[in-house]
């Protein structure tokens, strides 16, 4: 099972973003999942538009599950990723429930 991590990025210090995404990746890998982590595929200097293209392409093309971090509802991008995951029939996991 390949899991895409989704959560708030814009408006947060990059170090904090990287830390929470790496922590989620560690937890998911420990549970046996293959993980697609946006902080590993999106350059820190990417525009919002370029970041979303990379994320949506990977989410819809390579993953069967999305893992929503606690803050996902505070993010337009993560909310869009959630809608895309639903529309594509992907399994949705929530950090609060795992």
Question: How would you describe this protein?
Answer:
The two termini are 16 Å apart. The chain has a single domain, classed as Hypothetical protein PA1492 (Rossmann fold), CATH 3.40.50. The chain has helices at 14-30, 38-41, 48-62, 76-87, and strands at residues 2-6, 34-36, 65-68, 91-94. Helix content is 49%, strand content 16%. β3 (65-68), α4 (76-87) and β4 (91-94) form a beta-alpha-beta unit. A four-stranded parallel sheet has the order 2-1-3-4, sandwiched between helices. The model has no long low-confidence stretch (mean pLDDT 96). By secondary structure, the protein is an alpha/beta fold.
Provide the descriptors you would attach to this structure in a database record.
single chain, 98 residues, Rossmann fold, four-stranded parallel β-sheet, 49% helix
Describe the secondary structure blueprint for this structure.
Elements: E1 2-6, H1 14-30, E2 34-36, H2 38-41, H3 48-62, E3 65-68, H4 76-87, E4 91-94
Parallel strand pairs: 1-2, 1-3, 3-4
Helix pairs in contact: 3-4
